[in-house]
Amino acid sequence: MASVTIYDVANHAGVSIKTVSRVMNAEPNVRPATREKVAAAAEALGYSPNLSARSLAGSKSFVLTAFVDAALTLDHWSSERGTDYLTRIQLGATLPCREAGYHLFLELIDHDTPRMRQEVSSLLAALKPDGVILTPPSSDNEIVLDLLKKSGTPFVRLAPERSLPGGLRMRLDDRGAAARMTKALIDLGHRRIAFIAGEPRYGASRARREGFLTAMTDQGLTVEPTWMQDGDFTFQSGFDAARRLIGLRERPTAIFASNDDMALGCLAAASEAGLNIPTDLSVAGFDDSTGSRFSRPTLSTVRQPLVEMAGAAARALVNGQVPADCDTDAAPDQFPPFHLVMRQSTAPPPKA
Amino acid sequence: MASVTIYDVANHAGVSIKTVSRVMNAEPNVRPATREKVAAAAEALGYSPNLSARSLAGSKSFVLTAFVDAALTLDHWSSERGTDYLTRIQLGATLPCREAGYHLFLELIDHDTPRMRQEVSSLLAALKPDGVILTPPSSDNEIVLDLLKKSGTPFVRLAPERSLPGGLRMRLDDRGAAARMTKALIDLGHRRIAFIAGEPRYGASRARREGFLTAMTDQGLTVEPTWMQDGDFTFQSGFDAARRLIGLRERPTAIFASNDDMALGCLAAASEAGLNIPTDLSVAGFDDSTGSRFSRPTLSTVRQPLVEMAGAAARALVNGQVPADCDTDAAPDQFPPFHLVMRQSTAPPPKA
DNA sequence: CTGAAAGCGCTTACAG
DNA sequence: CTGAAAGCGCTTACAG
Question: Of B88, B81, B212, nearest to B159 (Cα)?
Fold first, then answer.
């Protein structure tokens, strides 16, 4: 079946193709009667503008690309473990795209391979996306960020971990989420709560630390200096910090590690010390990483609202709200809502 | 950054754009020296052909589209249950696409809504995909099939259930898989094995039935006529059939239901009769549906190898092996390998 | 083996 | 408010 083009519609409606173009793009300066005539003709002929032609002629490609790590996806899939990035991104981004006449290419990227630069570079050249949604670890990949900037493509970085510049950085409200998790531990009955901070270079670390301290203070609880431990977001640093905390004379009844990897380190340290989680000690993490769902016990944590974030990212991109040289954190009121996920690693404190 | 075009490469190499085009598309009739010169220029400039331009000028769009059900995806995601279609399709189809310079649009389709026809139709008009991969329930949706045929788009139907015509139909080897599951039950020690057949209109039903009978015969086992029950692939029909089987004087020790829904019906009937699965009775299904993974007990079943099927589908499509008017079952040697997934619902028969 | 011309189906920039 | 011309970056069909 020969496809119907803008010329067919123009003929059918008795106008020029430019007028058809105006109507299809909802541009101003068309008389209502003309507009309706054209719309009717398009409807009757079943006309939809060819994406390639629009893309080639115009300044927009009507294409968004999301970068997702190939290895991570493969791992998620083959281990048959719950939630995965791909579906969440797709679900979140699809609706805003559809509403704006956009289409989404979800590209699996082989991070940390020699050919990645070449792959990403030709992806951008071939697709010319109007915007790119980066998910971890793309969000923090210097080569990706570099290529994106050079190509002048607007991009949104979801849940970036490192304080690299560039793009619209979108993450949950770390401060508020940490405060809420702290409050949840307090509500369980805990009073002696320790905190393991992350790599201090990252804004997220500071924000989570602040959230913890604020919540404690707000509830009228004191924080012993020895309960504030430094970590660097690694399992090992969580393990070491937990060891120190467990050895304390005035041992805390709960540890809030400011990411899941460190919280998993706490579980290991507790196990080594013969402590039962959660009856002897509660442990909470942050991120809702895959590991948190399959540790023993499973970890109470804070979930990054990836679906909502992908939606907000797509919306910002299709609305042209992200300039090519953007280098800002998303405004606080754009912070998507987070969720506390309380699993097996937290419980009321042991009776004194 | 102004992007580099075919003209830049032509200038750099001192040839015409047509020659550059030949080299980029690996066409014949270019002197090796010229070819190298052009390749070097493209490399040096970081040139990648613009997909829109190729698509608009040429007969191919270099785009494949996969249709996935929106509601199903949403359900999979929000229930936080393992495997999902989306990831499997993406993983399977990505590699063949990449190798052929193709890109994949994964489109979420709202099946069974009034606007579906319009949506799919404009999708095809806008994207002009060179091929479409259909997953259930798109594989059996008459409107989708109709639109695809009218548009002249080659398509592959993954795991189609109904005997509607059209496309390249790709499914696992039902006969072989049923035989293998039967063999697995026999290997567990079962001799009295019942079978619940599906809707006889479907080829798959007949094939599974044959596979069962063949395996029983090959192992020298007899099949009582009362052990062969008719079902129609619904939960209810499985429930009813299982009731009849359980009431038999010579009750079978295992029931092989030829799809998961019917097998789940068997579980319900067994529960009603106070039988313990698997100690009193083994039950096996077919499909590896989501339900099979979360029933109590979890169901032993046959997995549709969706990743491999998506891969084979993408390969056939990008290689142009699927004519627009294709209406055939994939050749038996193209049947992707299946896997038996033995879970909690099967065990050795009770000691007599 | 190589290239000049035409055209894919739109949007842009401009004119009226 | 509407339209005629030019051009986006390629491939096709043809010529040499």
Answer: B88
Cα gap A322→A314, rounded to integer Å: 10
CATH of the domain at A278: 3.40.50.2300
Please, what is the end-to-end C-alpha distance for chain B in angstroms? Answer: 79
- pLDDT(A124) > 80: yes
Residue that has been written with the tokens 């893309």 in this structure: A55
pLDDT of A20 higher than 90: yes
Residues of A with Cβ-Cβ distance to B67 under 8 angstroms: none
Q: Of A275, A303, A331, which residue is a domain's last?
A: A303
What residues pair up with A327 in beta bridges, in sequence order? A167
End-to-end C-alpha distance for chain A, whole angstroms:
80
Q: Are residues B263 and B286 in the same domain?
A: yes
* A105/B51 Cβ within 8 A: no
CB contact burial A255-281 (16+ within 10 A = b; e otherwise): bbbbbbbbbbbbbbbbeeeebebbebb
- Residue in chain A lying closest to B69 (CA): A91
pTM summary value: 0.83
Return the bridge partners of A19, or none. Answer: none
Residue B213 in any domain: the answer is yes
B196 and B255, same domain (yes or no)? yes
Q: Point out the least confidently predicted range of A288-302, B13-27, B126-140, B169-183.
A: A288-302
A179 with A230, same domain? yes
Same-domain status, B293 and B178: yes
CA distance A244 to A224: 14
Q: Is residue B329 a part of any domain in this protein?
A: no
From the candidates A65, A75, A87, which should be mutated to test the interface with B, based on the most B CB atoms within 10 A? Answer: A87
B93 and B37 share a domain? no
**pLDDT at residue number A79:** 60
Sign of torsion, CA A307 A309 A311 A314?
negative
Helix axes A17-24, A6-13, angle to 10 degrees: 100
Contact A86 B87 (CB under 8 A): yes
**Within this chain, do residues B199 and B317 fall inside the same structural domain, yes or no?**
no
Structural domain tally of chain B?
3
Are B93 and B200 within one domain? no
- A156 within domain boundaries: yes
Which of A1, A47, A55 is the closest to B151 by Cβ?
Answer: A1
Which of B87, B99, B135 to mutate to probe the A interface, most A CBs <10 Å? B87
A25 and A107 inside one domain: no
Q: Smallest CA–CA separation between A83 and chain B, in Å?
A: 6
Give me the domain span that covers residue B20: 6-49
